[in-house]
Amino acid sequence: MTLLDEAIVFAVQAHSGMMRKRESLPFILHPLEVATIVGTLTSDEQVLAAAVLHDTVEDTQTTMDDIREKFGERVAALVASETEDKRRDKPASETWMLRKVESLRELKNCSDPAVKVLWLGDKLSNMRSFYRGWKIRGNRMWQDFNQSDPAMQAWYYRSIVKLLGEYRYCDAWQELNTLVETIFEGVSSHE
User: Fold this and answer.
1) Which residues belong to the active site?
2) 9-30 burial, b for 16+ CB within 10 Å, e for fewer?
3) What is the CA radius of gyration of the chain?
4) Where is average pLDDT lowest: 85-99, 114-128, 136-150?
5) What is the pLDDT of residues 6-44, one digit of tens each?
6) Residue 113 burial by CB count (10 A; 0-12/13-18/19+): exposed, middle or buried?
7) For the chain, how long is the longest CA-to-CA vector?
8) pTM above 0.90?
9) Contact 116, 37 (CB under 8 A)
10) How many CB atoms sit inside 10 A of residue 101's CB?
11) CATH tag for 3-183 (out of 2.40.50.140, 1.10.10.10, 1.10.10.60, 1.10.3210.10)
12) What is the DSSP string of the chain?
């Protein structure tokens, strides 16, 4: 099997039985969608593997050591760039802002362009999901999130779009930007 094949098998097993938040879809569809988006930007198999694995450490029993041992240092570093410290000893709503500030700092200071490609794939997949919910519920959909203030969500996603601006020529960035501006039209960002 190729590295990507192994990553897909690993991710399918790690996310087995999990469902996507607020959607009745198997969770594995999200990392596969992220890999598909990333595949429009690079053919680097390590980056594609990281795309498939990006939520395994954050959302399953998988550890960073597991990823490093099975897929190597670079894939592990890419997965780490997408992994928040969830501080499981506190409610997620209390740590949301801290986690997002840390994540944005990671994105801003990254030196590996593959990190930005991975972020672009992940956040575009998220925004597609959000858009489906927003079409049905409007800003009421944020009530189901750890951060229910649409202005805070707008700040976070607009910050990401700005930090990924070097990809503005790519279809993926343009779609992300369009979805962010559509969903948050008329919403002022809190900073």
Assistant:
1) 58-59
2) ebbeebbeeeeeeeeeeebbeb
3) 16
4) 85-99
5) 999 999 999 999 888 777 889 999 999 999 999 999 999
6) middle
7) 49
8) yes
9) no
10) 12
11) 1.10.3210.10
12) --HHHHHHHHHHHHTTT-B-TTSSSBTTHHHHHHHHHHTTT---HHHHHHHHHTTHHHHSS--HHHHHHHH-HHHHHHHHHT-----TTS-HHHHHHHHHHHHHHHHHH---HHHHHHHHHHHHHHHHHHHHHHHHHGGGGGGGSSS--HHHHHHHHHHHHHHTGGGTTSHHHHHHHHHHHHHTTTPPPP-
- Domain boundaries, given as residue ranges, for the chain: 3-183
Burial class (CB in 10 A: 0-12, 13-18, 19+), 41: buried
Which two tokens mark 93? 């709503």
